[in-house]
Design a protein that fits this description.
The chain is α/β, with parallel strands linked by helices and 258 residues long. The two termini are 30 Å apart. The model has no long low-confidence stretch (mean pLDDT 97). The structure holds NADP nicotinamide-adenine-dinucleotide phosphate (NAP).
């Protein structure tokens, strides 16, 4: 299927690795012009070069911290100036820490708010003028399965990302008339560095992965490129009638019916 993404301009945040990078790669493979950001400039430049080499389409790297307003607004302006607009925003960032509710103080709540809710609101708002100018757009937020069923120690993720779910619903309502769709992707367990880091260190890596996979109906952990494929579809012309939704990608892990 031709997703009609050729020459669309996509900005993928927090994309030197993991889910952001997989999203950028999938969009680039479909012919989009892609800008990626993350904090470590060296890793970011290498990722951009590798994606461009893999897909043959232009990928630009601009280092930025997504929780820093000045850096992010500059990033959005540079993207639009360089490629002449922004059609697709993959909103993403680092995840908040995991621990019990009682352990988080006000400072940690504030940090989680800045990174996982305010940053999404700010970037979503800042791309709108460009999307309105070109007559449409796609905003795709990468959040977490923690908005669908209880995930141990994920209180910061659940609380903040529920805010993103509500915000996306409201944005879909207000922005539909401009042909701008807003959707969330809620991953279960997808094998990225973040997941590798939280695997138990005292058991063999492969064994630890097998243990984690036991509770997943399809019997394995997800691949980043599977999430990338979903991002590319939500960004496509064919997905123009999908808006305000939260789509799980978790191999059937969530036991919630609604
Ligand atoms: N993988 C999963 O199974 C899973 C499941 C549920 C939810 N999620 C969520 O999905 C998101 C991505 O996770 P991932 O697994 O892809 O993580 P990852 O493999 O650790 O990759 C994180 C990426 O984000 C960048 N980043 C982190 N903080 C940033 C910041 N403040 N500003 C700009 N870039 C930043 C990192 O680069 P720098 O460090 O150089 O900035 C890196 O490129 C997280 O919010 C995570 O909580 C993941």
């Amino acid at each position: 299927m031709d997703l009609k993404l050729k020459d669309k301009v996509a900005l993928a945040l927090a994309a030197s690795k993991g889910l952001g990078r997989a999203s950028a790669t999938a969009l680039s493979a479909e012919g989009a012009k892609v800008v990626i950001c993350s904090r470590n400039a060296e890793e970011l430049a290498q990722a951009a070069a590798e994606i461009q080499h893999q897909t043959g389409n232009p990928v630009m790297a601009i280092a930025a911290d997504v929780s820093d307003a000045t850096q992010v607004l500059e990033l959005i302006k540079k993207t639009a100036d360089f490629f002449g607009g922004i059609d697709i925003l993959v909103d993403n960032g680092g995840g908040p820490p995991f621990s019990k509710f009682e352990t988080f103080d006000d400072e940690q709540w504030q940090k989680a708010f800045d990174l996982t809710l305010l940053a999404f609101a700010r970037t979503g708002r800042a791309v709108l003028p460009y999307m309105k100018q070109t007559g449409g757009g796609r905003i795709i937020n990468i959040i977490s399965g923690s908005v669908k069923s209880v995930l141990n120690n994920a209180v910061l993720s659940t609380a903040m990302r529920m805010g993103v779910v509500g915000m996306a619903k409201l944005m879909a309502d207000e922005l539909g008339p401009y042909q701008i769709t807003v959707n969330n992707i809620a991953p279960g367990l997808i094998l990225t560095d973040r997941v590798k880091e939280v695997l138990p260190k005292d058991v063999d890596h492969e064994q630890a992965l097998k243990e984690r996979a036991k509770s997943i109906p399809v019997g394995r952990i997800g691949k980043p490129e599977e999430l990338g494929a979903l991002v590319a579809f939500l960004a496509s012309e064919q997905a123009a009638y999908i808006s305000g939704t939260t789509i799980q990608i978790d191999g059937g892990s969530s036991r919630s019916i609604l």
